[in-house]
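thoughts on these tokens:
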Amino acid sequence: MDSLQIADQQWQRDAFTVSTCRQRLDLTWIHLQLAEKSYWAKGQPAAKTRRAIAGSLPFGLYHQQSQIGFARLITDYTRFGWLCDVMIDENWRGHGLGSWLATCVREHPELQTVHRWMLSTRDAHQVYQRLGWRVVQHPDMLMEFPPS
């Protein structure tokens, strides 16, 4: 079986860039945001952050050369994508950058055959609904395996 080779992608908006280039990611910034400022990964060790990024398609958001946002997609590049770890530095919120970042993920050329997009959020339903996301129509079809 051939391994999948995905070319780096980049989107530009004024002085902002979204990029999938892994070498450009500021892992220290990403880990700080996740481990100290998110509700879903609070206290997560740095090794777990690195492993999660390694197993997914990362999207960095930059103002000039500084990272100010991040998202990652867990995907098979064919049918399914789980958008997660979407975050914008608190100093840059309120400028539509999170919406633009999520839109860039959906516009990635290698993801155009994906037809099942999902995410989980506790507090940003309205943000995603403005972008066309909706509440799961058949939650009875979804299952989870909780850790013991």
The helical segments are 27-37, 46-54, 97-107, 125-130. DSSP finds four helices and six strands in the chain.
